[in-house]
Design brief:
CATH architecture: 4-Layer Sandwich
Number of helices: 9
Bound molecules: zinc ion
Shape: globular
Oligomer: single chain
CATH class: Alpha Beta
Distance between the termini: 19 Å
CATH topology: Metallo-beta-lactamase, Chain A
CATH superfamily: Ribonuclease Z/Hydroxyacylglutathione hydrolase-like
Number of domains: 1
Radius of gyration: 19 Å
Number of strands: 13
């Protein structure tokens, strides 16, 4: 799995980025600034400050985090890549609550969503999926090496020590966390990118924090780093069925969007599956499938050539060829 991800990022560095980025990470964790965006009373997204300008243009952005506050406690969604970014979130919690977070959770094992765990106070209870803890417990060293390759050295990854979950959510599980006057639900809707994918639903505010399975708004498209197009499609469809029409979705890397924004991702995955299936039925090789499944309506993402042609189509081909 890791080598596939590493190969994908190498391809990204070589092929998909403008020349000026060639030796630079997609976003620089030493430079990103997060701004706090209030969605409802006591519900905030910590969004990359350049999101309004760049996200609609399809430029990949840094991780988005969340803060949910009740009368007795608070919960942070995703702890970011390094100390600098984790501190931005922690400082905002302190500013809003005059205290430290009661809970922090990780939407996946990806380092930009979980490495910051170690910078949270000992008193903060860490919540993870069982699969996330399993992954970190067995792959941590290789994971940090890979992340340094993707995000650069000197970005604070060298200092990271693993801190795994105190409370674990099993496959298909759901945990209700009572923050006082507000119950938050942490849900597993099925495989959506890593197999340890957790979503945070705030029913009274109608806000859901998605993590990477909804990476960003249109024209961004899903990253099928571990393949499984049909399961991913099923899980996103379950989320769509679950959410009320006026829900707000906070993506893993971008600005909050209306529920209707999810149709774009489901539409892409459906087109990817159907057209790849048609190519397989005609006896296409994987290279032919890549050149045939062009999906012209979905090409606005700045890294489309990489994520669609080098990751998603080959993954869908392999799955549908079976
Ligand atoms: Zn991420």
């Amino acid at each position: 799995m890791k080598s596939k991800l590493a190969a994908a990022f190498t391809a990204l560095a070589c092929l998909a980025c403008p020349a000026a980025w060639a030796n630079e990470p997609v976003w620089d964790a030493n430079k990103v600034v997060l701004k706090s965006e209030k969605l409802r009373d006591g519900v905030y997204a910590m969004v990359p400050a350049n999101a309004d300008q760049l996200s609609p243009k399809g430029v990949p952005l840094a991780t988005t985090s969340g803060i949910i506050i009740g009368s007795r406690g608070s919960l942070v969604v995703d702890t970011m890549l390094n100390k600098r970014l984790a501190d931005m979130v922690l400082n905002e919690v302190r500013r809003l609550t005059k205290g430290s977070p009661t809970y922090a959770m990780n939407t996946s094992y990806h380092g930009d969503h979980s490495y910051g765990n170690m910078y949270f106070p000992k008193s903060t209870v860490i919540i993870q999926h069982e699969e996330t803890k399993k992954y970190i417990s067995t792959n941590f060293e290789a994971d940090t090496k890979f992340m340094m390759g993707a995000f650069g050295k000197g970005r604070g990854i060298e200092q990271i020590k693993p801190r795994t979950g105190d409370v674990l959510i099993p496959k298909g599980g759901m945990l209700q966390v009572d923050l006082g006057g507000r119950v938050v639900e942490i849900r597993d809707f099925g495989f959506a990118q890593t197999g340890g994918d957790l979503w945070v639903w705030v029913p009274d505010a109608k806000v859901i924090f998605a993590g990477n399975p909804v990476v960003t708004e249109k024209p961004g498209i899903p990253w099928l780093l571990d393949g499984r197009v049909q399961e991913t499609l099923d899980s996103l469809s379950r989320v769509r069925d679950f959410l009320p029409a006026d829900a707000i979705i906070v993506p893993g890397h971008g600005r909050p969007m209306p529920k209707a924004g999810l149709d774009w991702h489901i539409g892409y995955l459906t087109a990817l599956r159907d057209e790849t299936k048609a190519a397989v039925a005609k006896g296409a090789t994987v290279e032919q499938a890549v050149s045939q499944v062009t999906l012209p309506n979905y090409q606005g993402y700045a890294i489309f050539d990489w994520i669609h042609k080098q990751v998603n189509v080959p993954a869908a081909y392999k799955e549908l060829k079976k």
